[in-house]
Amino acid sequence: xxxxxxxxxxxxxxxxxxxxxxxxxxxxxxxxxxxxxxxxxxxxxxxxxxxxxxxxxxxxxxxxxxxxxxxxxxxxxxxxxxxxxxxxxxxxxxxxxxxxxxxxxxxxxxxxxxxxxxxxxxxxxxxxxxxxxxxxxxxxxxxxxxxxxxxxxxxxxxxxxxxxxxxxxxxxxxxxxxxxxxxxxxxxxxxxxxxxxxxxxxxxxxxxxxxxxxxxxxxxxxxxxxxxxxxxxxxxxxxxxxxxxxxxxxxxxxxxxxxxxxxxxxxxxxxxxxxxxxxxxxxxxxxxxxxxxxxxxxxxxxxxxxxxxxxxxxxxxxxxxxxxxxxxxxxxxxxxxxxxxxxxxx
Amino acid sequence: xxxxxxxxxxxxxxxxxxxxxxxxxxxxxxxxxxxxxxxxxxxxxxxxxxxxxxxxxxxxxxxxxxxxxxxxxxxxxxxxxxxxxxxxxxxxxxxxxxxxxxxxxxxxxxxxxxxxxxxxxxxxxxxxxxxxxxxxxxxxxxxxxxxxxxxxxxxxxxxxxxxxxxxxxxxxxxxxxxxxxxxxxxxxxxxxxxxxxxxxxxxxxxxxxxxxxxxxxxxxxxxxxxxxxxxxxxxxxxxxxxxxxxxxxxxxxxxxxxxxxxxxxxxxxxxxxxxxxxxxxxxxxxxxxxxxxxxxxxxxxxxxxxxxxxxxxxxxxxxxxxxxxxxxxxxxxxxxxxxxxxxxxxxxxxxxxxxxxx
Lengths: 346, 358
Known about the structure:
heterodimer; A: D-Maltodextrin-Binding Protein, domain 2; D-Maltodextrin-Binding Protein, domain 2; 14 helices; about 40% helix; B: two-stranded antiparallel ribbon
């Protein structure tokens, strides 16, 4: 290849990275949990409206940093952001879609949803207080199931993650000891067990060693046919993880009383509610420097609320209850203003 | 002013130690040329290049470009040091030097200590060296002294290919192949053999989960072995054949030649090569993250999960909030790794240079 050809090839290659952005393209960055559904929505929305979403799944912490620095049009975070940080960063937080976290196990002869656990048993396992599978606390919940004298190997996410936040939030809600000795954050000081990176790492780690237990997003467990376990909810009923169970949790959450839409769907009162359910959030500046891009973001999520439900459900996510969607739209109108102080969302 | 290039005419044996010394003292590149037997070895041929003035003017832009490229490296290095030091400084202000000895890494209470990661980094790297050094020495001696000519090329090429395998591949292979193997076979076996021995037994106690410090050390060893072996082969090939032939001539066996000639001749260069391998092991991130078990605890057993500096940064960085003390703690961890790697590299340079000047 001659030098000129090489240069031409290099220029062509550069060109592929600098495709001019479409008229209404907008950017987002943050949480990895909703990334698959944002991607699916983005592709569909682009086909319908011509505006493309460029979403970078860099993690919730990164998403918060980027939107605080205003380097993207919206940020995304699995854990709700602290109220005072939202205040000082002039950000509006709203939920976009709902997901669930499920326990997975590796025990010989145990099939999916055959084993039943409670929140306090789960907490004691991760606290290192229950160490054998045939512990009386587990046996009592599972009459008729033969449990081996095997060591329990708890597995957790080593990377900071919204999934961990939701899971330990549940453990802390149920177990006072967990709350006082470990606490709730996107990564915590685990008293026992092994850490693995990402959902696939936890799933792989559980698969690698017999007797291990872990937790992953339901989306991941459903797509990979992992051996999930039932949990006893607040109503005292054992429930298997399923989309209707998550919907019940979403419907029974206290949305009206929640500040910044940070309603807890952990251990809600519904009869058939799955206890580890949570929303993921988007963060939008209240004083956007690019009002047009901000409007695009709101149009996108408006479309996703109205028409994106089937796509979300196909990927095992739960759409927001319609009453919550209405209050999000009202919040857009009331809170997001352009430079002249006029509402951008009409 | 007349500049000269040095051309040394040599016999078939290639450069000698003197050449290396001149090269070092004068900062010149020395070109060696094979000669016919008629010319005396070591003969110097000076070749006039060009007179100064005209050529220097023409070369000025070139010189500036080269200098700029070199300065860029220094600027980059400085920028990295400044970022890591500044970013980590709030941690030193808050926790003081106890940051380096505290084993508490708790994002909930925002207490951060680096002892677990320092321990994990140093122990996995030390294990890696413990396994990789004798193995590399064996492979290199085999390749240079024992192997039949037909075997040298394929094995040598295989080693270079292994050195080129990206670390993430080692990580995935380690996670899916080595970890189950360790869990099912190697760890129970080691436990059965060493378990009953006091003190050493504690190193092999606990549940054989497959992941942990030992597995991380093993994967690191496999990663740095090709690297160290390749350098060892270079070093052993540079031992003047006349020394070895002399030893064989007075009746030494192959083993005796290794012990008395080959290894002592390259000793400090060997140590330098090992140090470079160590530098690689210290900073290795992805492969270690896959297999170390990622727990912020220190335990006596090599089976227990741990964390290294690099794996902790890889794990925690995406969720470290803007302006948080956690981010500062991660930057300070990065700074400590930088300092450790720098010290190891400096030691390696020092030892390799010593050998040239010896």
